[in-house]
Design a protein that fits this description.
This protein has helices spanning about 50-55, 80, 100-110, 125-135, 155-165, 185-200, 210-215, 235-240, 245-255, 260-265, and strands at about 5-15, 20-30, 35-40, 65-70, 70, 85-90, 170-175, 205-210, 220-225, 230-235. The protein is of the alpha/beta class and about 270 residues long.
Length: about 270
């Protein structure tokens, strides 16, 4: 079976040769098999979000290669990668158009990468598809498809963004702390929806999180980063047996330093 994503010797430095030089990825190697759901954890500046950004094409890499579903996308611009990649950001406002209806947002996502032609009207088939998908969220939004997205709460918008980013099955789904801006109860609902969508579609996904409990509980694999390096990569049964204290010990053991990120420690 061919890997879905393969990062080989990825290096990225911001502001090279200046006083603000910052090496954010240091010879990173990471391979995801189809159906892998990887959670990524680490302190501030560890390189977690940068990994997502180099996969999405937001930042070009200095050296190394990125292969997605057998295709070398290392030099492909961001807009050409977009049809292969689903992405949900930390800010619930980022993934949706507030002044458009729920069904219009879904229609835009549904037609991504297709020739839209001149007709914008939402078809009967699309309306039926959207109703069914939105009903599965369990948030009662299926009878509000003509409501403007700006009327929705942050959690409802994140759930909608998840639907939009997976309505055309992506080669990979990138989740960048997508529950961090939500209260704990809403975050749990959005995480449950995330799990449901990923399992149902057998998606390959990477989720960056600050929450160690979530990182252990969710997905089949966990990666820990420190200073641009992957210092720990665990999966399957070994991952499911982990405790938060184990992760803190691993961090200290691998990096020779204490885990001092307040936000992560507060969420133990």
């Amino acid at each position: 079976m061919e890997a879905m994503l393969k990062l080989t010797n990825i290096n990225k430095t911001f502001n090279p040769g200046t006083i603000n030089e910052n090496k954010v990825l240091n010879n990173v190697n990471l391979t995801l098999e189809p159906g892998d759901f990887v959670t990524v954890i680490g302190g501030n500046g560890a390189g977690k979000s940068t990994i997502l950004n180099v996969v999405a094409g937001v930042f070009p890499v200095d050296t190394g290669t990125i292969i997605l579903d057998g295709e070398d996308i290392t030099k492909l611009p961001e807009h050409k990668r977009a049809k292969h990649i689903g992405r949900v950001f930390q800010d619930p406002m980022q993934g949706t158009a507030a002044d458009m209806e729920i069904q219009e947002n879904l229609a835009m996502a549904n037609r991504r990468g297709k020739n839209r032609g001149l007709a914008w009207g939402i078809t009967k088939e699309e309306k039926e598809k959207f109703y069914k998908l939105v009903k599965e969220l369990g948030l009662g939004l299926e009878d509000r498809l003509s409501d403007k997205v700006g009327l929705l709460s942050g959690g409802q918008r994140q759930a909608l963004t998840l639907l939009m980013s997976t309505i055309q099955k992506p080669d990979i789904l990138l989740l960048d702390e997508h529950t961090a801006a939500l209260d704990p109860k809403t975050a749990k609902i959005v995480l449950d929806i995330t799990n449901h969508i990923i399992e149902n579609q057998n998606l390959t996904a990477i989720m960056v999180t600050h929450n160690m409990r979530d990182a252990i509980k969710i997905g089949n694999r966990l990666v820990m980063m420190s200073e641009g390096n992957i210092i720990y990569d665990v999966k399957g049964e070994e991952k499911s047996k982990l405790k938060v204290d184990d992760l803190l010990k691993k961090f200290e053991e691998y990096s020779g330093d204490e885990f001092s990120n307040d936000r992560i420690l507060l969420q133990r």
